[in-house]
Structures are given as C-alpha cells and as structure tokens.
Amino acid sequence: MRVDNTRTSGRARSRRGLALLIASGAALGSLLLGTVPAQANGTTKEVSADGQSITFATSDSSRNVSGGVTFVVNADGNWSITGTAHNSNLLVRTFHWTCDLTWDAAKVTHVTAKKAAPGKTTRTISSAAYDPDVQGDFVAIADHGRADCDIVIG
Description:
This protein is of the alpha+beta class.
C-alpha cells in the first residue's frame, strides 16, 4: 500500500492529472499546427526607363519557407509574377505567391499556381496573364501604385 501524505483523494489526483494532460496536449497541438505570421520585407518599385513597365520586388517568409518574388506590370496590360521558395523543413511544403496591386481606390490581386517544394530544396514558379484594369490605369499605377506580395504556404 502506498503512503499518501498529500491529503487529496485518488479521484481528485486523477482529475487534476487528466486536466494537466489535456492542457499540455492543447498547448503542444497549437504549437505544432499554429500558423506563424508571414514576415514580409519592404517592396521596391522601379519604373523602366521607357516608362512601359513597372517592376515590384520583395521577399517573404512563412512557416520556414522563404523566398523572393518579382511582380512586373506592363503598359499593354500584361503582368507576370516570378518567385522562388526555399523550404527549410524536412517535409514537402506547397506554396504559391499572391500579389495585391493597389492604386487610387482600385485593387487587383494576381496569384501563381501552387507548387510543391520538397524538404531542403528551392523551387521557382511563375505566372503571367493580361489584365485590362492594369492597361487602363497604367499611368496612375506608375505614378502612385503599390504592390504587396506574399508567399502562401498550403
């Protein structure tokens, strides 16, 4: 027989232990599954010498996947996104890039397709298309447009 000098019953100790186990599991689960906010850097903006294209460039990281991206918009309305991602994890991570372009009261969002990056590797992805809003307001975008590009994991 065990000597008990804690002055609590076995049933109370069991409930306390169970509550501690549940709290520990919840904390560990949120740590493992919780999302870490993306760490975006400042975006540079460069208008070409002929004024026909604008290049936005930045880097970003999220959940141990990091990389750089270049977002180009052209006066003819064509745009392109080219981004890389280095996966520091051991497991495969799927990623894509999303870029929000804002000017005046307008906002357009363009994204790349998703791509898998195996553990400890770097992958490059790109997308391009035509956007009539970019063509119609290119002068305003060149003057005071801004882009925010983020890496999205999952």
